[in-house]
Amino acid sequence: MSYMLLRLPEAAKSLGLPSSSFFELRQKELIPPPVSLGKRRVAYVASEIEEVAKAFIQGKSEDEIRSLVRHLVKARQSLGLPVGKERQAVFPSTSDS
Q: What CATH number did the domain enclosing 68 receive?
């Protein structure tokens, strides 16, 4: 399986947002956390950003989108994919490892 990753400018642009608004949505847990690409590099999973975009287009509420984001994070974790370190406090792992 392959995953397309987006750096911050591309992820924000795909939602039609400036970076500052993208960060605001991340703070509200309305954007899935990034994947770490190294010590100082992160990227966003394109399919997750697309799912969030669809939810906004469909007029979903913030609570519904937040629930979607949590679902996407759990799905990523169940596949053994990492969750960005900067967001682990917001999206704690539910596994007992």
A: 1.10.1660
More confident residue, 61 or 82: 61
Residue 12 lies in a domain: yes
Structure tokens at 62: 């913030």
Whose tokens are 């990523």? That residue is 76
User: What pTM, to 2 d.p., does this model score?
Assistant: 0.79
What's the mean pLDDT when you consider all of the chain?
85
